[in-house]
Amino acid sequence: MLLKKLMAILMGLGGLPGLSGGVQAARPPQPAMDAPGECRDSAFLQQHPLTETLRAEPFVIFYTRSGDNAPPLEDTTGSGTPDYVKNVAIQLQAANQYYQKMLRLTPPLEQPRYRLAKAIHVYLFDLPRGNGMAFDEVTRVKGEDGNWLPCALTIRISSKLNQPLNPTPAHELFHLYQYGYTQFKVGWLLEGMTRWIESAYNGEIVMSKKLQARPPLKGAELYALRYSAWPFWQRLAREKYGTVTLSPELEAVRYLDGNPVFRTTTLPGGEALEPLLTRLQELSKEQSRQANLPYYQWPEKLQQSHQFDDVICQAMEGIECSR
């Protein structure tokens, strides 16, 4: 009470001598423009106990052998790890090599945005909807012993996929690559580009004759799409960039049943990915400076905002993007 009276008196007198504007609360320091985001605490493993792990660098795959969250437990190799889990690891490691060595992309854990992350955690459980999710924040969880595990990026994968040919693990991993480059999270960019990249695992996506005859997608028609925006990226890449050819080492990678991980040996226009994502990285920073926001700490609502659609589209080699 005495402190409140003293503060009231000081404010009434115009504050302490030598201080203009009265008593002011100290402002928290403004984070540096290139400061990484926080490593947030997560209770996920307390809510979904996944007590088994498979390490496949840089991934740590968490799963369980019991309950609704358990994947199929068949173990044809007798290794003690279910085939389902091993096939997820095979796809993730092959995709990671493909994105780095073939598409020449910087892996998420080497990006400045994610310098607090030490691994990529993959949680296999019975998702309430969809096949997978990738998160752009760095988090940490408690292990079985109650101690915090190192900070990590997170992917959640359904434990009920039609294995091994479902490309969800590679799809979600590519989102982490995108997040490492850019803050923009609109569907036509994230999902459209990723669906086009999936052709490496599904076989080449071929445009129908009807789709080929249509003018290129642009403006509001393009921006309203998500997965169906893939023709925009395929057309852009093929017109302006060269083909990526799979290395013999990756071509030889097989799932446990002998099926190849990669269903095509070429990605026409694949050389587009590195320059396009680098341009988006530069564009994110430009918008950050204009808004006086740290590069890697945009509010989620702003990341998903369509206010940047025209800016993003026009940055892609000067394409006509008007609405």
TrEMBL record:
In terms of superkingdom, the source organism counts as: Bacteria
Record's signal peptide: 1-25
What does the UniProt keyword field contain?
Signal
Record carries keyword Signal = yes
Q: Is Signal tagged as a keyword? A: yes
Q: What is this protein called?
A: Peptidase
Tell me which species this is from.
Answer: Pantoea coffeiphila
